[in-house]
Amino acid sequence: MSAPLVDTHCHLCLPAFEQDLPQVLSRAAAAGVGRILVPGIDLETSRHAVDLAEANANLFAAVGIHPHAAAEWSPDAYQALRSLARSERVVAIGETGLDYYRARAPRPRQMEAFEGQLELADELSLPVVVHSRQAAEDVLGRLAGWSAGAADRRRTGVLHAFSADEQAASSAVSAGFYIGVAGPVTYPSAPRLRHTVTGLPIDRLLPETDAPYLPPVPHRGQRNEPAHVALVSDALAAVRGVEPDRLRQACWDNAEALFHWDHGTDNRHVL
User: Fold this and answer.
1) What's the pTM value of the predicted model, to 2 decimals?
2) Which residues contact 97 (CB under 8 A, 6 or more apart)?
3) Can you list the pairs that 72-77 forms with residues at least 24 positions away whose Cβ atoms lie under 8 Å?
């Protein structure tokens, strides 16, 4: 029997999946997907992510505010996310980070929201799910300081749908972070990404779909969905020259090491 698959970033909480979510989940199960992380991108979708995770044994949630929604950040938003994290199905804070490509929120507001969510992750001893687009220097600079700032433990997380260069990937891994690899690893136009992931430690890789976005070949132009993480995983195995089952098992173990979703966290009583 093949090792199970894991999709560490899939936005099942978005309207794109409202009409056929049961069928989407059925196809994921048939493809061998055993765990899916559903990250929120604002307060509304974070609540929906938690609801989905509480209703489905193989789904887990991250709660956060995407840099595009940084205008929503406030002390009340901090407390709302903190309250959502009472659920044992919440295993991370995010999707947070910085996006200088679309710049839908001013950079100072993005940084304020990012800093606040790092603070929340620290308070709750949870990892972070980080979005970085054309902002690698600022993201990694902040994460390196945050990761090294705890005297008694290692703060960590994942840079999802990684698209920066080899040096940035190496810096992230050195700071204790995981690298999320999505559909672009299958694109003919992405030789740099394939070269980057070839050189990373296998115990730092996490496959994802970022569904409904970034569909892998041969599904470009279509809605992405979690079953397609099999294509991402197989592409990763091929790039690295390892057996697909070995890659799947390594990534399953990596996700468990980061999210601890088979046994949860031990701090819910403090909320």
Assistant:
1) 0.94
2) 66, 67, 114, 130, 131, 132, 135, 139
3) 72/42, 72/43, 72/113, 73/109, 73/112, 73/113, 73/116, 77/43, 77/116
